[in-house]
From TrEMBL:
Residues 13-133 form the DUF2231 domain. This is DUF2231 domain-containing protein. InterPro entries: DUF2231_TM. The keyword Transmembrane applies. Keywords: Membrane, Transmembrane, Transmembrane helix. The chain crosses the membrane at residues 48-71, 83-102, 114-134. It comes from Sphingomonas montanisoli.
Amino acid sequence: MLATPPAARPLLHPLQALLLAFPVALFTGALLADIAYLNSAEVQWTNFAAWLNAGALVGGGFALLWALIDLVRFRRTRSRSRAGIYAGLLAIMWGAGLINAFQHSKDGWSSVGTAGLILSIISAALAIAAGWIAHSGRRSA
């Protein structure tokens, strides 16, 4: 008879996964709005990007808070390194998103430019990477 592996739980609580969906979707949307602005120079795209970025920061802030609490709670488990990488990615993502929000508060063409686009790419890529790390692994019960 084959032995069954011990029960495993997802790395994320379902509500934490819901909170993580906000920065993944909204930072990606802000990146797309920045690209649209750079291609069209229509000012409304930079307004969309600024609002999407703000929403991503709110959802990402709560996801980061939950990840830090989990990091403290699961000090002695095998999934601690994954949880640390996940929390680290969220922290860097949130910091880049905050700097990007400051960049988008400028007027006109300087609100996006090269720096704003690079910050949007970094924020979106880190949000996607954090989602990948969080959803690809399981922790032992």
